[in-house]
Structures are given as structure tokens and as C-alpha cells.
Design goal:
The protein has a 4-stranded antiparallel beta sheet, with helices on one face. By secondary structure, it is an alpha+beta fold.
């Protein structure tokens, strides 16, 4: 099991219910693959460095997760097809 940091930028126009729904879905994918979510840090709405899909803002979330390396590719694939996630980055910690 490796420790990872997952940063997701979600669409800025999501209301709180939709935002939490997407977050719960990502957490569910982690736990379904045998991993665990150690910490969730919502950074809130921030300005993007450059426009993405004509959006200039996004809602940032940092997840510290523990996951098997073989499950990381599956997690990224699932996130890639989630339309509410504008960008994401999964990095190994340590």
C-alpha cells in the first residue's frame, strides 16, 4: 500500500449537494479498491491559472489516500470519465 495525494478541481457551478456527491463517489472508488481515505481537505473556490473549458474558477479538494499501486490506474480512469472533475492529479507521497 502506498500513500497518495489526489488533488481534484471540480466545476465551480456545482451546488453543495452535487459537490458532496462527486466527492463521495471518488471516496467510494478508493474504498472499493481496498484503499482508505486518510484526510479530506476542501480548499474551496479558487481562480485557475488559465481558463479550462471556458471556466476561470474551480473548487479545489485535496485527498490523502492509501491505495494499492495496481488500483491507482483504475481510480484515475474513473475520475477521468467523471464530467464534474475538470482536472485531477494523483501523486505518490514519500
Amino acid at each position: 500500500m502506498h500513500s497518495y495525494e489526489l488533488i481534484c478541481i471540480l466545476q465551480p457551478d456545482l451546488d453543495e449537494t452535487a459537490f458532496n456527491g462527486v466527492l463521495d463517489k471518488v471516496k467510494g472508488w478508493v474504498t472499493e479498491s481496498g484503499g482508505s481515505v486518510d484526510k479530506t481537505d476542501v480548499w474551496g473556490r479558487r481562480r485557475l491559472a488559465y481558463p479550462i473549458h471556458k471556466q476561470t474558477e474551480g473548487q479545489y479538494v485535496l485527498l490523502n489516500i492509501t491505495l494499492k499501486p495496481s488500483a491507482a490506474a483504475e481510480l484515475e480512469r474513473n475520475i477521468r470519465y467523471q464530467e464534474s472533475v475538470v482536472r485531477h492529479m494523483l501523486t505518490v507521497v514519500g
